[in-house]
UniProtKB/TrEMBL annotation:
Species the sequence originates in: Blautia obeum ATCC 29174
NCBIfam families, alphabetized: portal_HK97
Pfam family, one: Phage_portal
Protein name as it appears in the record: Phage portal protein, HK97 family
């Protein structure tokens, strides 16, 4: 659409006359974007979301108790069974934790509604958790009741607008597990990488769209058409269409098109190499991954990686990125799910991060053997780690019989355990 037509349509709109409301160029000229490009469609952003969400979903949640003898596995509770077996009739724990972490990273906050009820007095009169439901973060609004509108001055509530039914619900703070990203200036709400680095993510999306257009046009550049003489607008449009149909598109790649005398086609596009397109695209990808705490090898950038280097980067990801996320989840779960008597008995929930630290079978067997031989693991504990049943006599710690306490070094050389070593 040329500028004259744009102005004409704008004037018609002001006069209330009919205009081309679906004209893409007119809407964009008026500042109305006609295209909704999702951040998740950018491959680096999508990869980072996938890696973080799946990493959390891989780790099983365990229920422990701290005793005088150390940490032991505690008897399962209703809440523990929900979070480790089936949180609701439609989801597995893997699906629930993956969904919450994806919402948390994409929107800055993730929420789980803990649905429960108080049992009658004849059944103990305690609060019982029935099931757990992740909520879409863009439909949740935290509300601080500063004046006591709902009878709780200074308390936090969560309003949820169900996108399927349109109904609205109001939940107490104790009924909602609220997970957030590290970037939170007020401690209540988190900010997502998408909103903080919106320009970087949009730029990466724009570069992807540019590549798509190049492929759609058969990797042909835009051209200027030079001709002699005076042609009407109608004939110019016919020429444009003729050469556009003959040169653009993957079906015309490498095709020879005859050009009449007096007509010249000159490419206008700057080459990708001159624009350092791929270098800038790679730099943007590393910036997005770095903001998420993702290492270069995890987004398939192996330029400066070796096998051992990649293994080190994977360990660094678990320590530097996921350890914070795991600790934050554990604290929120223990703060919202544990009952007062469980807290008094020093019971707690903990993710098993060892499930994502598994090595090859040879290294795994060597490590377990060393742990058993040095009295760190009991044989049955090592067998449990390998998903093998317990064996009789395997609940004892064993060490090498040649080991002695450091305070008795040299005593083995004395006669009858007495005297000097020189006797």
């Amino acid at each position: 659409m040329n500028i004259a037509k744009r102005i004409k349509n704008a004037i018609q709109a002001l006069k209330g006359q009919t205009v081309e409301l679906n004209d893409k160029e007119l809407l964009e000229w008026l500042g109305i974007s006609t295209t909704n490009y999702k951040a998740v469609s950018e491959v680096t952003y999508y990869t980072c979301l996938k890696l973080l969400a799946e990493t959390l979903g891989k780790m099983p949640l365990k229920y422990y108790q701290q005793t005088e003898r150390g940490r032991i596995r505690a008897d399962p509770t209703t809440a523990g069974i929900l979070m480790s077996v089936r949180p609701n009739p439609y989801m597995t724990p893997t699906t629930m934790w993956t969904t919450v972490e994806q919402n948390c990273q994409h929107y800055g906050n993730g929420y789980i509604w803990i649905r429960g009820k108080f049992l009658p007095a004849r059944y103990g009169g305690q609060y019982q958790i029935m099931d757990m439901w992740p909520m879409q973060s863009n439909y949740v609004t935290p509300i601080m009741d500063d004046v006591g509108i709902w009878g709780g001055e200074g308390k936090l509530y969560y309003r949820y607008s169900d996108p399927r039914t349109g109904k609205q619900y109001l939940f107490k703070d104790s009924e909602v597990m609220h997970f957030k990203t590290w970037y939170s200036l007020d401690g209540f709400m988190g900010e997502s990488v998408r909103s903080i680095l919106s320009h970087t993510v949009d730029g990466a999306n724009a570069s992807q769209r540019y590549m798509n257009q190049l492929y759609e046009n058969g990797l042909t550049a835009r051209m200027a058409m030079q001709y002699t003489g005076d042609l009407s607008d109608e004939k110019v449009k016919k020429l444009q269409k003729k050469f556009a149909d003959g040169l653009s598109g993957p079906q015309n790649a490498g095709k020879i098109v005859p050009v009449p005398i007096g007509l010249t086609l000159t490419p206008l596009n700057v080459s990708l190499a001159d624009a350092q397109f791929f270098e800038l695209r790679k730099y943007s990808a590393l910036q997005i991954a770095g903001a998420f705490g993702i290492k270069p090898n995890q987004i398939n950038n192996y330029e400066k990686s070796s096998y051992s280097n990649s293994e080190t980067q994977q360990l660094a990801f678990l320590v530097e990125t996921m350890s914070y996320r795991i600790k934050m989840y554990e604290e929120e779960i223990n703060g919202k799910v544990l009952m007062p008597d469980e807290i008094a008995d020093q019971k707690f929930y903990k993710f098993n991060e060892r499930s994502i630290l598994r090595t090859d079978s040879k290294t795994q067997m060597e490590n377990l053997s060393k742990a058993v031989n040095n009295g760190i693991y009991m044989p049955n504990e090592a067998r449990e780690y390998l998903d093998m049943p317990a064996a009789d006599g395997g609940d004892v710690l064993m060490v090498n019989g040649n080991y002695i306490p450091i305070t008795q070094v040299g005593a083995q050389y004395t006669k009858g355990g007495e005297g000097n070593a020189d006797d």
